[in-house]
Design brief:
There is one protein chain. With about 575 residues, the protein is α/β, with parallel strands linked by helices. The chain has three domains: about 325 residues, P-loop containing nucleotide triphosphate hydrolases (Rossmann fold); about 130 residues, Domain 2, N(10)-formyltetrahydrofolate synthetase; about 80 residues, Formyltetrahydrofolate synthetase, domain 3, CATH 3.10.410. The chain is about 35% helix and about 15% strand. The strands form seven sheets. Strands 1, 2, 3, 4, 5, 6, 13, 14, 15, 16, 17 and 18 form a twelve-stranded mixed sheet that branches. A three-stranded mixed sheet has the order 20-23-22. It has a two-stranded parallel ribbon with strand order 7-10. Helix 6 packs across helix 8, helix 9 packs antiparallel against helix 10 and helix 14 runs parallel beside helix 15.
Amino acid sequence: MKTDLEISRNAQLRPISDVAREIGLADDDIDLYGRYKAKVHLDAAPASGSGRSKYIIVTAVTPTKLGEGKTLTTIGLSQALRVIGKQSIAAIRQPSQGPTFGIKGGGAGGGYSQVVPMDDLNLHLTGDLHAVAAAHNLLAAAIDARLYHESRSSDKRLQRQGLERLDIDPESITWGRVVDVNDRALRDIVISASDEGVRRDTRFDITAASEVMAIFALATDLNDLRQRLGRIVVGLNKSGEAVTAEDLGAAGAMAVLLKDALMPNLMQTLEGGPALIHAGPFANIAHGNSSIVADKVGLNLLDDDGYLVTESGFGSDCGFEKFCDVKCRYSGLRPDCVVIVATVKALKVHGGGPIPTSKKAAAVDAATGLDYLRLGLGNLRAHIAIARQFGLPAIVAVNRFPEDTDEEIAAVVAGATEAGAMDACSSEMWARGGEGGTDLAQAVIAACDSVGGGDFEFLYPLEDSITGKIETIAKRIYGAAGVELSPQAKERVEHYTRLGYANLPLIMAKTHLSLSHDPELFGVPEGFTLPVRDIRLSAGAGFLYALCGQILTMPGLPSLPGFMKVDLDEDGEIVGLS
């Protein structure tokens, strides 16, 4: 069996300028980065299309360690739509090098449903992640430079330089530094340990966890990007007032660093269709979706009968809820249909079955697999119910593996439609590309046509209190019986309400491995109380986020990390990338 990299390497790629021309982009509308990738100018799309094409969001059941194939389905569905004669564009996040070189691997899709060249996508691409890191770290340097100079300068000297004393409280600073490598040694560090500067504790996060990345993905244009960067709150002054990137004079330079990066990246699927790759925010402390700019460009490039297929991070309780309640609020866009990805393997795990990593586990699975599967269907029903709460028609895509039986596939399809999905069908897009997803494509078209995108609605109004939003998400999305805020979280509610941030949308930062806050609770947990230990502010991105458990923003490398398999062969070709 060929690896994803071997499949990518053997593909007959089209010049990216040909892919661009197919969707109405002239040579002057793109900046080439080699033969197979390009940047799309922000002013290229508005005059090209009507903006009334269909908008499809792909999500999944609660993820397991087995992998469900959400990106694969996004790319494969885009290819399948083209197979049956529809115009389509895929829009996905750019993978972070941390997971690529760690445990997870890349994010190009898989098999015969992937974005190519996959090695370009999974590594530097056009440098967007580096630009985000540079902008973030410039602001971090600005904070410590101001602490240093204010500790050594009089008010008069600062005034002669056109500066006001910010009087930042070092203990209040929330802005750390970022790097696009998994490095647990940098989670907690001490800076300015010499006699120069103000010694203080801080941290490194992975670049995808930066608020700059969240801003980058939510900005609607360059001006919006610039304004959002200026609103970043880095800490408080000694009077308890917010200190922003604008106060530090760094927002303009940060915008300059991100100017070219804000243009979406154009690549192609394995079957030569267009794919927009842009942004990569965390799906826990941020919204976990590709950029608004890429979606708007894609929708405007398509004709009225075209389809933009995008995806959200993790399951529908995580990235999809945030797609609807955060991304769609800021974009003004409304999805027409949601595709929920499931696998027989994942549903068996949610039904109490063992993860099939050994012969013993496989033997148990063969003996009682259908029983586990039927129990695990509860998790799929919960995700269908989440989609329906937003007024969207749901289609279930069952990614089929060779060992799945017809009886098992039929059980999932029947369970999905009984739970309220408009349709459900088996998908073989890993092995067969677009041809393996034509049933799914037809189901998506029928859903969009029959209900006209449904009656989309947000889960909560922005006027709700911070606590009210938390309770709404906890009860209606996670199925919690109630919510318990820690004393610190209660203080934050009062603090952010007093500062005027209560009307922002809210993100829940919790494990992606369960509908609850506990990663050990599979299936459909019931009767639990959701603990909220803290609430934090991303003022530039424009949301609050509630911490429900420990969320790592700097992953660590395993004992056998992915990078140990990556090398160059004797011909200078990359090998070992997954």
